Amino acid sequence: MAQVLGGITTSHIPAIGMAMDRHEEDTPYWKPFFDGYPPVRAWLEAQQPDIAVVFYNDHGLEFFLDKKPTFAIGTAPQYHNADEGWGIKPIPPVTGETELSWHLVNQLIDDEFDMTVCQELRVDHGLTVPLSLMWPGNRYQHIKVIPVCINCERHPMPSPKRCYKLGQSIGRGIRSFAGDQKVVVFGTGGLSHQLDGERAGFINKAFDQYCMDTLVGHPEELTRLTNDDLVEKAGAQGVELNMWLAMRGVLSEHVTELHRHYHIPVSNTAAGVLVLENED
Amino acid sequence: MSNSSHADVPGTIKFDGPMATKGYALNKMCYSFNEASAREAFKQDEAGYCDRFGLTPEQKAAILDRDILALLREGGSIYYLAKFAGLLGLNVQDVGALQTGMTVEAFKEKLVRAGE
């Protein structure tokens, strides 16, 4: 059966991609952020995963409000990035996966998660920036990616509890897949930030640290939060914590925290990194 | 049941069904800015481009005035408005400064202070 190696959380802010394009990783502004990543890359290098399940949200590249899925999953052999309208450079195609992904679709729908299934999907910075961060120089084409997209842009949004359960269903799917693939799971986005309104620039360090602490050993505690709670405590875009919860749902009950990093600010955002290794 | 503000979160408009209805044309126009040709067409004739998408007079005025807070009140979603901001050459700190009435430098300083 396929194996879940562990999970990684990471920010996916477009400005990170732009900074990498401009080789600004060692500038005073960016260094404290990028310093969080060498241990993550070393872990990936040591583990050599075959497949990455990436929880992300689409910020208006593939999905507009005309048809907006609550949960979507990709089953395509390849994914393309495209112009998002404000200057982040499109990056090389992302390699997809067509076997485990369909197995996950079956598992999810059996578990009453009625996914939108995408055989074509343009993937935005929410998915591509983490890949560029993990494999600098955009050397990510060896890894097969299964995108899982969660609505974080328009209320009503799936609850933290529902997102965690989505992850649990995907975890069951991976563990019941006949194969010897090694799978890593990314929870992208977050942590606290708010882009819109008079409250723009809101960041809540104490809440972020509580979320990182709790996600490791007591994720179910976080599933008692509502999306309105997240807006209040983590800012309007702080609901991206839902992608972290989905990632955590895939992992085993007990995990080992191998690495943690937290930095404020990157762009308008608090950026958190975790590497959690599965214990079974 | 449905309520377009987070009652207890000042300075925050909840982008929900009613707001998505109100802002549909505005957001659809901003979504079009993913295409370079659309960005160019807007720059050539801003008011005419707004009319093609059927923006209300309030939405159109807010676009022409670059009034981000008014755009949010008129049903704009920050994710699509970000594409409008990009077209104007503004980043999210610039947009934050516009919405909070701060200078960009003061807004950036506020973000740094949040980490202390």
Automatic annotation (TrEMBL), chain A:
<feature type="domain" description="Extradiol ring-cleavage dioxygenase class III enzyme subunit B">
    <location>
        <begin position="8"/>
        <end position="270"/>
    </location>
</feature>
<dbReference type="InterPro" id="IPR004183">
    <property type="entry name" value="Xdiol_dOase_suB"/>
</dbReference>
<dbReference type="GO" id="GO:0016702">
    <property type="term" value="F:oxidoreductase activity, acting on single donors with incorporation of molecular oxygen, incorporation of two atoms of oxygen"/>
</dbReference>
<dbReference type="Pfam" id="PF02900">
    <property type="entry name" value="LigB"/>
</dbReference>
<dbReference type="GO" id="GO:0008198">
    <property type="term" value="F:ferrous iron binding"/>
</dbReference>
<protein>
    <submittedName>
        <fullName>Protocatechuate 4,5-dioxygenase subunit beta</fullName>
    </submittedName>
</protein>
UniProtKB/TrEMBL annotation, chain B:
<dbReference type="InterPro" id="IPR011986">
    <property type="entry name" value="Xdiol_dOase_LigA"/>
</dbReference>
<protein>
    <recommendedName>
        <fullName>Extradiol ring-cleavage dioxygenase LigAB LigA subunit domain-containing protein</fullName>
    </recommendedName>
</protein>
<feature type="domain" description="Extradiol ring-cleavage dioxygenase LigAB LigA subunit">
    <location>
        <begin position="26"/>
        <end position="111"/>
    </location>
</feature>
<dbReference type="Pfam" id="PF07746">
    <property type="entry name" value="LigA"/>
</dbReference>
<dbReference type="InterPro" id="IPR036622">
    <property type="entry name" value="LigA_sf"/>
</dbReference>
